[in-house]
Specification:
Elements (H helix, E strand, L loop, with lengths): L1 H21 L18 E4 L5 E5 L15 H11 L11 H14 L8
Antiparallel strand pairs: 1-2
């Protein structure tokens, strides 16, 4: 019984992790949806006279990929997973660590990449 309780979860984890590592990732990424330009919110008084124009917080300014500094891209990736560029997108150690923590706590307490 103890062997089954230990062996089955380990076997399942190895199969899942092996699938992540050896199965191909999608060949293409879907095109992004078109974003309609946002419009400023205008506030009018009782007489119909405009008293405010709320542009500061509602403007959607599209940018090109080339406009985003590389340091910002690197900072965003590193805040999520500092080893991203060394493990090809699947962190086996992180996934194993998360699996073990979830198994010990009998609940989802961590995530792996």
């Amino acid at each position: 019984m103890a062997l089954t309780v230990t062996f089955v979860p380990i076997t399942v984890a190895v199969c899942v992790l092996g699938g992540f590592i050896f199965l191909p990732l999608p060949a293409n990424i879907p095109e992004p949806k078109q974003v309609l330009p946002s419009q400023a919110t205008k506030i009018y008084d009782v007489d119909g006279k405009q008293i405010a124009d709320l542009r500061r917080f509602e403007q959607n300014v599209p940018v090109e990929k080339s406009d985003i500094p590389q340091v910002l891209k690197d900072a965003t990736v590193s805040s999520e997973d500092r080893n991203f560029y060394s493990h090809s997108g699947v962190d086996v150690r992180g996934s194993a660590r998360a699996f073990w923590a979830d198994f010990r706590n009998k609940a989802t307490v961590q995530g792996g990449s």
